[in-house]
Structures are given as C-alpha cells and as structure tokens.
Amino acid sequence: MKTVILNGQNHKGSTYHIGRSIADKIVGENEITEFYFPRDLNHFCAGCYKCIEDMAACPHYAEKKTIIDAIDAADILIVTTPTYCMHMSAPLKAFFDLTFDLWMPHRPMRSMFSKRAVIVSTSAGSSTKHAIRDVKDSLFNMGVPKIYRFGTAVHAMNWEGVSEKKKAKIDKKTIAIAGKLSTSKKPSVGIKTRFMFMLMGMMQKKGWSSSPVEVEYWKQNGWLDGKKPWKE
Ligand SMILES: Cc1cc2nc3c(=O)[nH]c(=O)nc-3n(C[C@H](O)[C@H](O)[C@H](O)COP(=O)(O)O)c2cc1C
C-alpha cells in the first residue's frame, strides 16, 4: 500500500499527529510519503490558465509534478489541515488552486477514481465541518470515491496541550479509520461521482470544455465512448 499525506501546515501539531497516526496504524506494508504546505509548494495560482492547455506550462510545474506523481501512485490520501478562521488553511487552499486542472470538469487523473482518502482537521473549539468540507469539495471533484472525515476540537494550540483523555479518544478513532483503510479492495464508486463524471463527459462532447486539449484527453482515455476510469 502507498499512502501520501498532504499536510496543510509546515508544523507538527495536533492535526499532523492525528493524520500521521492514522497512516502508521494501517495494517500491512505501507509506504508513507509526506508533503507539507507551504514548504513543498510555496506559491499561489496566478490565474494564467496555462495549465488548461498544458499542465507542464504552469510556472510551478516542477514542484507540482513531484507531488502529483506521488498522489497518482498512492492508494490512500490523508489530507490534514488545522481549522483556520473556520476553514482549511491558506497553504492547502493554494495547493488545491494550483491543481484545479485535475478536477473532473478538466482533466481528472484516472487513478483518483480508485483511491480512499481521509480528511483530518482540528480546531480549538469551533466546528471543523467547513474546513473538512473545503477539502472534500476538492477531493470529490478530483474523482476520489471514498472519503473519510475526522474533525475534532482539541481545545489546545498544539499537540502537547491536548489532554490525555482527549488523546485516548483520538487514538480509538484513528484505529477505526485505519482499519477501514487496511484493505486492498477497490472502493465502490457512488452515484454522485458517477453522475458528475457523466455530466462532465456530456460537457466535453458538446464542446463546452475550457480547451480542445481537454476534449482530446477525454477522447484518448475512451471516456467519451463509454469507458469509465474506475473500471479500468
Ligand atoms: C490563524 C488561526 C486561526 C484559527 N481559527 C480557528 C477557528 O476558526 N476556530 C477554532 O476553533 N480554532 C481556530 N484556531 C485554533 C486551531 O484550529 C487549533 O488550535 C488547532 O488544533 C491547531 O492545530 P495544530 O496543532 O495542528 O496547529 C485558529 C488558529 C490559528 C493559528
């Protein structure tokens, strides 16, 4: 199994610890690769749209490629973000902006449709649901069919400040999530993903895409002739 952890922060606080602990508890051989934002992608999308024609034309392609290749090869994605001002962290948002060309309306990666993902967010006291929703929107639109969520208010500014009682509760939850991830079975693809993929295919067929390059990509994959990325 290959697991990629995308950390929406450079530091190793509560959010990082929970994400890493899920990865460490996955049963069987598991190669773990971690990225940290902004450390590994310290840029914002400039809105040049060059990626729409050619992914490699993005000014930040060299850095992005390393991360995207790792994601492509992974079975499991763990995305962590502290809840900042009720939402995901800015560096994580920047990462998702810089990879928007991998969304279903553009050129989704085939491999995404057979991955499992976990989103982890911690807050001091407020709800983590908006931060988790932010990440879920991106992962869903990239094609990931199975997404687990773990949000918790830790009432602390760092991992050291989290009470032992809370840590014990977190531990139980991470064991449960890791258990669900410890399978080599392909995840089933739900109705929402199927519907979105069908809609985006229709859009490509009608020529409503952002570029002819996208139509060609969908054609080459056979997706305009009935092939499905999750069945390949
Ligand atoms: C810039 C910033 C914004 C924050 N916004 C919120 C918030 O909206 N709601 C909340 O409950 N906690 C908020 N917090 C607290 C963190 O979410 C909380 O301490 C979290 O557990 C930190 O995770 P970490 O240890 O991984 O850094 C904020 C902290 C910072 C630094």
Q: How much helix, percentage-wise, in residues?
A: 40-55%
The strand line-up of the biggest sheet is 2-1-3-4-5
Distinct ligand kinds:
flavin mononucleotide
By CATH reckoning, the class would read: Alpha Beta
Shape, per Cα inertia axes: globular
Q: Give the averaged pLDDT, no decimals.
A: 97
Q: Determine the CATH superfamily.
A: Flavodoxin domain
Terminal residue distance: 19 Å
Proportion of beta-strand residues? 15-25%
Number of domains: 1
Class from helix and strand fractions: alpha/beta
Describe the structure.
By secondary structure, the protein is of the alpha/beta class. It has a single domain (2-189), classed as 3-Layer(aba) Sandwich (Rossmann fold). It contains eight helices and five strands. Strands 2-1-3-4-5 form a five-stranded parallel beta sheet, sandwiched between helices. The longest helix has 18 residues, at 164-181. The protein starts with a strand and ends in a 12-residue tail after the last helix. The model has no long low-confidence stretch (mean pLDDT 97). Bound molecules: flavin mononucleotide. Flavin mononucleotide (FMN) is lined by residues 9, 13-16, 82-86, 122-126, 154, 156-159. Flavin mononucleotide binds next to helix 1 and strand 4.
Question: Summary?
Answer:
By secondary structure, this protein is an alpha/beta fold. Helix content is 40%, strand content 15%.
List the helices and strands and how they pair.
Elements: E1 2-7, H1 14-25, E2 31-36, H2 50-53, H3 61-73, E3 76-82, H4 90-97, E4 116-123, H5 129-142, E5 146-153, H6 164-181, H7 191-205, H8 212-220
Parallel strand pairs: 1-2, 1-3, 3-4, 4-5
The protein binds flavin mononucleotide (FMN).
The site of flavin mononucleotide has 20 residues, from helix 1 and strand 4.
